[in-house]
Amino acid sequence: MSPSPPRLTAPEPDPKTDSKNATAPGYDDTSVQQIVTRDFSFAEAAIYRVYRRRWVGLATLMLMNIMISWGWITFAPVSTSTQTFFRLQKASSVNWLSTVIFLAYICMSPVVIYSLRHFGVRAALLFAAGFSVTGVWLRFIGARIGSSEGGHFPVVMVGQILIGFGQPFVLSAPAYYSDLWFTSNQRITANALVSLSNPLGAALGQLIDPFLVSQPSDIPNMLLYIAIITTAVTAPVFFVHGKPPTPPCPSSAQEKLPFKSAFPRVLRSLEFWLIFIMFSILVGFFNASSSLLNQILEPYGYSENEAGIGGAILIVVGLLASAVVSPIIDRSHTFLLAIRILVPVISICYIGLIFAPTSGSLAPPYVVLAFLGAASFSLLPLSLEFIVEITHPVSPEITSTILWSGGQLLGAVFILSMTALTDSQTGNMRRALVFQAAISCVAAIAALGIGFGGRVVHVKARRIALDTSEGM
């Protein structure tokens, strides 16, 4: 096999002259390794370079994730005002506004896998934009019409479901997009930027929504502002490119397994199931805690604004920590070590959350939330990239969608379970927090079992190994 030409010496192809039958300068068709996938040609597969335009798609995915997440969390920080405005008898009705989004995600997961695999990331973004824009405006209409009589809650619920249909297209895309456009030394950082934009949107909702809603009658105006911003954010979708003219590295060019072969292969992997259990539990509890944070703190005398600030601390500190950790893991590739450190820290934080609110002061819950955010956000992107590494050449959208579906399903289950465990007289959620801490310890056990007992060969970073063997 002839060596691949240096990545940086290849001229950037002109999009107007790109062709499937183009030949790399200095090479003939017989001297180029045949690695064909995603419509890359024989010659194109030998030219490895990255393109500045990849940042346009990454930024668009970030913006879409921010706004869809804000749409998900909209009512949680102002749950009391929401319940009053819509004249709901139980707080659990407000919780369903978050829960339906998790369930909608699961319903759309097969469509997402098919869309990313056959139509690419641009089509996925268009689907997400269509669902989310329709959903946010439908919510506003449901709240505005008949607002003096409590609005139309079922219409708002339908809007939430549509937002839920759009969410999996942007949540499942980061691993697929980073595999297509970025090298092995950039993928965790790229995935982190997009994946963590989702909780950033939740942070904005936690922080901003309580200030937009000073009284229940402000709910329609809040929904209007969010609808306008969401509509504006979807505009860059039309400028996103589906795939680069040439792959960034050998692992991006390598042919991925067809779904019928890939899916059974994933299901037979013990390491996949351990990561799935860990990821699903921790994402589920993060979603549940974010949705219920106001209800967790309120019985101890904390206001909606203070709970909103706590949610913002959870997410902002997490983003800052991930900004430090992700580039380090990108360079060191110490996936497993990081997982074995971070997951037990998260479990300890959930144990601490049982006791922190009882202090009656702001510092203890804020400190626990800060550590929880730092560990959770650092874990998220490296878990998504690690599962792609150990299952390669399974296509990334398959594993990432399965992981996110597990997290969304358990998020719904945990919200319902924790709501049921809430004291009906006082609203105290201590039993729910004990339940949360106990189950999070199961995630820690699963994390410590990954690659244990001589199974090191099953946690090999296969994409990185391929790129290294090709001199990348």
From TrEMBL:
Localization, UniProt: Membrane
Topology with respect to the bilayer: Multi-pass membrane protein
Region (Disordered) residue spans: 1-27
UniProtKB keywords: Membrane, Transmembrane, Transmembrane helix
Keyword Coiled coil: no
GO CC entries: membrane
Molecular function terms from GO: transmembrane transporter activity
Regions crossing the membrane: 55-76, 96-116, 123-141, 153-176, 188-208, 223-240, 270-288, 308-329, 341-360, 366-388, 400-421, 433-453
Name by which UniProt lists this protein: Uncharacterized protein
Organism: Orbilia blumenaviensis
